[in-house]
Amino acid sequence: MNDICQSCGMIISDSSLYGTHGDGHPNHDFCIHCYKDGFFSTHSLDEQIAVNTSPEGLADYNKSTGQDISEAEARNVLASYLPGLKRWMPRLEQASWILDRCGYVMLATVSEDGFPRPVAIDVIHHTGINEIWMTTSYSSEKVRHLLLDNKAGLSFVHEADSVSLTGICDVIKDREVLHMFWQEPFRRYFPSGPDDENYCLLRFRTEKAKLWIDGYASSIDDVPSVEPCR
Prior knowledge:
alpha+beta, Pnp Oxidase, Chain A, 6-stranded antiparallel beta barrel
């Protein structure tokens, strides 16, 4: 097990130490000291550092690690370490962190009659949430939709967090790029390998994002573009 609390950095070595959602079921991102019944016990990074370096917290840390660090030393370490945890990341980085923990996402294309058609699909590579790569059959319905209209939506969920993206999804048949992203497990679907005529890639470029992360809603109306992956 040994998950890391994404608020205070504590190692979660026992299932009883997981935080809890509002309905009481476990939240595997946070410990019970930081997140209970859907609420955080701290409200800022400075407050979290203060809790971690309280006399009790520091004594527990030194006892568990066999160290004898001072409060000042602990504050310096935490000021560097905690911002790398999910709760304290910038919003775009939080969304990317969540995507890393999702095996599949929902990709919605626009059908010929103008309705969204969502389908589960695996992500094979992503640059933050700015650019997301997937693979599918060139003969698939989603490809047919995208060749007519490349506007698309993409969404994913982890714990109680959700991310909804809108943008442009291009069908990629460039041989160099197909070979670059090829993985041998794909051969199950594309027996002829990276040169299989039915093998193609989808490149989703995010333009707007709506986020619900750690109980807080936000929107990003102009997600920065990135250089095409090559």
